[in-house]
Amino acid sequence: MDAKPCEAKARSFVNGYMTSFFDLPVGSIFRILSLTSPQDVCRVSTVSSAFQFAADSDCVWKGFLPSDHEEILSRASCAISFSSMK
């Protein structure tokens, strides 16, 4: 068996084909992570480069911000500019 133990647990067979969590579309992985917590996203980012890529996405972090975050920031006494949603 050439798969690492953790990877082997994530694999399954669908219609006779071996699949893994990482066979999901990237958007689906972003959505799954956005349904967890910021702490969970940080933890999972250490598991693999694929999770690190997903955890770095603003698509994931935007879900943790209040829907009116832009309006909240506009009320700040000095201009606030961020390059990322993290």
Account of the 3D structure:
- Residues 18-64 form the F-box domain.
- It comes from Stephania yunnanensis.
- Pfam families: F-box-like.
- This is F-box domain-containing protein.
- The radius of gyration is 17 Å and the shape is elongated.
- The model is unreliable at 3-10 (pLDDT under 50).
- The chain has a single domain, classed as Monooxygenase.
- The chain has a two-stranded antiparallel ribbon.
- It has 86 residues and is mainly alpha-helical.
- The chain is built from 6 helices and 2 strands, in the order αββααααα.
In short:
With 86 residues, this protein is mostly helical. It has helices at residues 5-10, 26-34, 38-44, 49-55, 58-62, 69-74, and strands at 12-14, 17-19.
Tally of DSSP β-strands: 2
Please state the CA-atom Rg, rounded to the nearest Å: 17 Å
Distance between the termini: 38 Å
CATH class: Mainly Alpha
User: Looking across the biggest beta sheet, what order are the strands in?
Assistant: 1-2
Which residues form runs of ≥5 with pLDDT under 50?
3-10
Number of helices: 6
What would you call the quaternary organization? single chain
> Which descriptor suits the 3D outline?
elongated
Mean pLDDT: 80
How many structural domains does the protein architecture include? 1
- Helicity level: 40-55%
Task: Output the structural class.
Answer: mainly alpha
The assigned CATH architecture is: Up-down Bundle
Percentage of residues in strands: 5-15%
Find the CATH topology. Monooxygenase
> Main β-sheet: number of strands, strand sense, barrel status?
2 strands, antiparallel
- The ordered H/E elements are HEEHHHHH
